[in-house]
Amino acid sequence: MISGTPYNPVRRYIPRINTRNGRVIPRLATLLLGLSILLYSGAMSAQVPESPLDETFTRLEGRIKRVELDNGLRLIMMRNDYAPVVACYMKFKAGSADETDRTSGIAHMLEHMLFKGTRRVGTRDFESEEKYLYVSQRWMNKLDYWRKQLEQARADQDESGAADAQQQVIKWRQRLDALNAMARRFIIQEEDSYLYSVNGARGYNAYTSADLTNYQVNLPANRLEVWARLESDRMQNSVLRDFYTERYVVAEERRMRVENVSRRMLFEQFLSNVYGTHPYGRPVIGPMESIQYLNQGMAMDFYKTYYAPNNAVIAIVGDIQFDETEALIRKYFGPIPARRIPRVARPEVHPPVPH
Q1: What average pLDDT does the structure give for the chain?
Q2: Closest CA to 5 of 231, 283, 227, 222
Q3: Which fold has domain 11-21+63-119+187-333?
Q4: Model pTM score
C-alpha cells in the first residue's frame, strides 16, 4: 500500500509573490490591488444578477445532507447520479500532530497496519493466530532492547559489550523471524483488497497528514454495503499483523522518498525551523531514529485512542439515496461506542532564533 503525499501544513501560510515583466510586485501593492477588486465587486453586486457559480452552489446545497449519529460519528452525503458509482471517504481526526516525540511516525505506521485486516478479515483462524501475535510483540520488544544496547556499546566504544549485544540481536531476530513465519500460516494476505476488487472497487488507498488520516475507495453504487461492513470492521476490530516486517517497509519508504530526495530533506528542515517544538515541525512519516523503534503497543494505543466514531467523519458522494445511505451507516457504525478523545498539548510556535 502506498501512502498518499503528506499534507503540507504550512502551504497556505506561504505568501505568493506575483511577478510582472521580471519585476517583483511588493506584497503591500498586491494586497491593495486585492482590496480594490473586492470593494469594486461589492459596489457592483447590487447591479449584477446571481452568477452561474452562485447558481451552482444553490443547486448543490439541495443535494447535500449532513447527519450526526448518537455516538458522535458525522456523515456527509452528496447525491450525484451522473454515473452509478460512489466515492467513500472515512477520515479520522488523528495525525502526526497527535503524536509525541517518542511515538513520532506512529500515525503513518498505523495507517499501513490497518491494511493488514481484522479479526474477521485477513485470517484463517484468528484464535490460533492471536497467540503468535502476543508472543511476537514481546519478542520484538526484546530485540529492540538489545538493538539499543548495541548502539550504546558502539557509541561508548565498548567492544566486549557490543559483541555480547550483537549476539543477542542475532538471537532475537532469528527467533522473531521464525515465529512470524509460523504465524503467516494463518494469514490471508491483502484479503481486504481482494474483497474490494471482486466488488468492482477502484482507488483503494489511504494517506496520513499532520491532522488527519484518510481511507478512501470508489465502488459501484450497489456495493455500498460492502464498504460499510469492511470499514466499520476496520474502525473497531483491526489486527496489527506482521508489524516487524511492515516497520522495515516504512523505514525503506522514508529512505527512498525522503532521505534520498534532497528537496524533501530540505523541506523537513524548513518545517523544523518554522515550527520549532510544535508538532507541525515533525515529519509526518517520522524521523528514522523513531521509525526503527516503533512497536505494536504504541500503534494499538494510538488506534484505541483516536479511531473512534466521535473522532471520525464519513463522506459519501455518488448515486445514492439519503435515507437508504443513512440507514446503512446507522446499521454498521451506529453500535460502535464513542470514546473520550484526549488531545496532545500543543505548545505555541517559537521558531529557533538565528545566531
Answers
A1: 87
A2: 283
A3: Cytochrome Bc1 Complex; Chain A, domain 1 (3.30.830)
A4: 0.81
